[in-house]
Design goal:
The complex is a heterodimer of chains A (243) and B (85). By secondary structure, chain A is mainly alpha-helical. Chain A contains 8 helices and 2 strands, in the order H-E-E-H-H-H-H-H-H-H. By secondary structure, chain B is mainly α. Chain B starts with a helix and ends in a 5-residue tail after the last helix. The chains are: A mainly alpha (243), B mainly alpha (85).
């Protein structure tokens, strides 16, 4: 009784995370998985791209050509997205938002190149969600007084009656969980659908799944990247705005 | 016919997974409503198309979350099998 019976006729469906080798840390068995390898590949690609871009921009010309056009397009469009949401505060966060934007986008797209997308592992997206959570609350304590934070946490009722405090606390804790689960489940559903199509159809699925790749990897991945960054910016901006 | 306890749990997990993805109805309706109003808004004000598009996509992606939770529950039931002892 195994999974193959649940998905009849499919013997080579494979979308799980595999452990490559294990090691012992303080008596715990830890695994290096395919996710680590895929994250390293994506990171390596981005680092090489950044080095080439840096070398190119060192001798930038007034009239941009070829590759410099592409770089300026990327930076300007990311600046525009962040500036559109955060306004005058955008210069503080544009580097971070652009970094996670490019990283998540490349991770989601990497399904096209035969990798298992790193964002289809909850460990990766939870880390991104926790970073967002940390940024929200560091900025909350930096730009708001303790009194106004307390008033905000008891918000529908007056501050001397903290009945709503636990409910607001839960809704704060739910932010990173829902952010990370949204990204994770979207990418995972795309990965599973592609694995099912390739596994169930066999040799028939030779050319036409390209359409599905465009939808599940490119379109859905880009939308989810945009949504993740947009929500991160909105949450951070809420804490900055209430000075 | 000899059905062991584990087989029964697996069969019920499969039924439960099927029931869990019924959650997809809600986001479908919600995203359709959002897209309908966005089309309405573009019809009224074609100049604001890019703003309307980004707002619509953001709202649809947030509305999609509940459906994805249903999908996750189905995945957990089928592949992680938490109920099999």
């Amino acid at each position: 009784m195994n999974n193959a019976i649940l998905m009849s006729g499919a013997s080579d469906i494979d979308f799980m995370i595999h452990g490559l080798f294990s090691y012992e840390v303080f008596g715990q068995t830890c695994w290096i998985t395919t996710t680590h390898v895929c994250v390293l590949i994506v990171m390596g690609f981005l680092i090489i791209f950044a080095l080439i871009a840096n070398r190119k921009m060192k001798k930038a010309t007034d009239v941009p050509d070829g590759f410099q056009n592409v770089l300026e397009l990327i930076v300007e469009s990311l600046d525009g997205v962040v500036g559109g949401v955060m306004g005058k505060n955008s210069y503080k966060f544009v580097n971070y938002i652009s970094t996670i934007f490019i990283f998540i986008l490349m991770s989601n797209i990497s399904g096209i190149f035969g990798l298992r997308p790193p964002t289809a592992d909850y460990g990766v997206t939870l880390a991104l969600g926790v970073i967002t959570f940390g940024l929200i609350h560091v900025n909350q304590f930096r730009y708001n007084s303790l009194k106004s934070i307390w008033t905000d946490m008891c918000s529908p009722l007056p501050p001397w009656l903290p009945i709503w405090f636990p409910i607001n606390l839960i809704s704060e804790i739910a932010v990173p969980i829902s952010l990370s689960l949204r990204l994770f489940a979207n990418v995972l559903s795309g990965t599973v659908m592609m694995a099912l199509v390739y596994g169930l159809l066999g040799w028939i699925a030779t050319f036409w799944p390209a359409v599905l790749h465009v939808y599940f990897d490119l379109f859905s991945g880009a939308i989810q990247t945009y949504v993740f960054c947009m929500l991160t910016m909105t949450y951070i901006n809420q804490q900055l705005g209430s000075e | 016919m000899n059905i062991s306890g584990n087989d029964l749990i697996l069969a019920c997990s499969a039924i439960g997974a099927g029931l869990a993805v019924i959650a997809g109805i809600g986001p479908g309706v919600g995203q359709g409503i959002a897209a309908g109003y966005a089309a309405n808004a573009v019809g009224r004000n074609p100049g604001a198309k890019s703003d309307i598009m980004s707002t619509m996509l953001l709202g649809q992606a947030v509305a999609e979350t509940t459906g994805l939770y249903g999908l996750l529950v189905a995945m957990l039931l089928l592949f992680v099998k938490p109920l099999v002892g």
